Amino acid sequence: MAVQQTTAFVLLIAVLVIPTVLGNDLAHGFGDHLNWKSLDEGLKESKETGKPLMLIIHKSWCGACKALKPKFAESTEIKDLSEKFVMVNVEDNEEPQESKYAPDGGYIPRILFLDSTGAVHNEIINEKGNPKYKYYYPEATSVLDSMKRASEVLVQSKAGMDEL
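Predicted structure:
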């Protein structure tokens, strides 16, 4: 009986501790506490739920990407607002190759907002950023501004579609 209890306890600890230690593989450093999806899963969930999708495209070797990660992950405002989105980030070879995911170039990191049909909304840009790199975000505050705009624009467009 003691062996069974010990085995059950060890299994319980493993189930609870291992995911915490290993972290969220899909987070790639952008916050294990956020509900990240793969791009395919995210597009499917966005279509099913009507939630807009936020897509971060980055590389593991990129200095600007590495600098953004802790700022993004530590923002409680981003965490709270992320509940309104299907959250996706792709790293290295996961980057989608369709041209719609590089509307003004293939620089990194770039953050795009998609509606529930999978259409990229090119009008949602870093308003405070460089006009040559509209989807580049070096700071969490600029990401937050675009998330707010996207939640307003994309929720409104969804509401308008429901009325038709």
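Summary: The beta strands are 36-37, 53-58, 86-91, 110-114.
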